[in-house]
Amino acid sequence: MSFPYKCVLMVGATSGIGLGMAEKLIRHGSKVIAVGRRQDRIDAFVRKHGDKAGGLAYDISDSQNSSTFVKDITSSYPDLDCIFLNAGVQAMHDLTQPDKVDLAAFHNEMNINFSSFVNISLAFLPFLQSKQSPTSIVYTSSNLAIVPASSMPAYSASKAALNCFTLCLRDQLANAGSNVKVLEISPPPVQTELHDYMGQEKGRSLGMPLDQFCDQAYNGLAKGHDQVIIGSIGPQDNFMDIVVKRRGAFEVLAKMLRSF
Q: What predicted TM-score, i.e. pTM, was given to this entire model?
C-alpha cells in the first residue's frame, strides 16, 4: 500500500522529521509543498526535487498572517489534499527554580508546538472539507504526550494538548461524516536538530536514526492507521496498554456526550 494523498503541505520541512518525511513522500509519488522559516532551505528543497516540490517560507507562529498564508497556498496548489504539521521546539525547564524559568520560552514552546497547529488546522479545514475526494491532516506528536518527561514540562504539555486536540477533532469530523481524516504520528526521540540545545554532537545522536523512523512512520500511514506509535516509554506492552485503554475511555465519553 502507499500513502493515498498526492499533494502534501509539509510544515516544518526544512529539517529533521519534516524534511525526512517530505523526501520519503516524494519518493513514493506525492508532491510536497515545503513550509519553514528558512528561505534558503526551502529553495534548496525545490531545486532538488523539481516539479515534485513547491515551497513557501512562513513562520507558523505568525497567527496574524495565517489567513494570507492559507489563501496563497490554496490558490497556488488547488489540488492540495493533505496538511502535515510537524514543526516544533524543545527545551528543558527547571521548575524547582521558578525565578530562573524563562516564561517567554516556556510559552513559546506551547504556542509553536500546540496553538499554532490549532490555528493552521482550523484555517485549512474549510478548504479540505470543500473537496469531494478524501483529504487529511497529519500531526507529528510524541510519545511524551502519553508519558511526560519531567525535565521537559512545556514540550510534554504541548504534545499532550496536541494529542487531546487530535482525538477531539478526529471524533467530531468522523461523526459529522467529513471527508477529512485526522492522523497522528507519535515518535520516540529521533536523531534531529530538535535536540541541538543539548549540544549538537550529543543532541543529534539521541534516539532513533531518522531514516529508520521515517520508514516506520510512512509504513503505518500507508497501511491506513490513524495513530502511528513508534517505540515506547518503558516496556512496549505496558505503554500500548495505556494508549489503547485511554483511547477506549475517550470514545466511551465522546459517545455519551453526543447523546445529550
A: 0.94
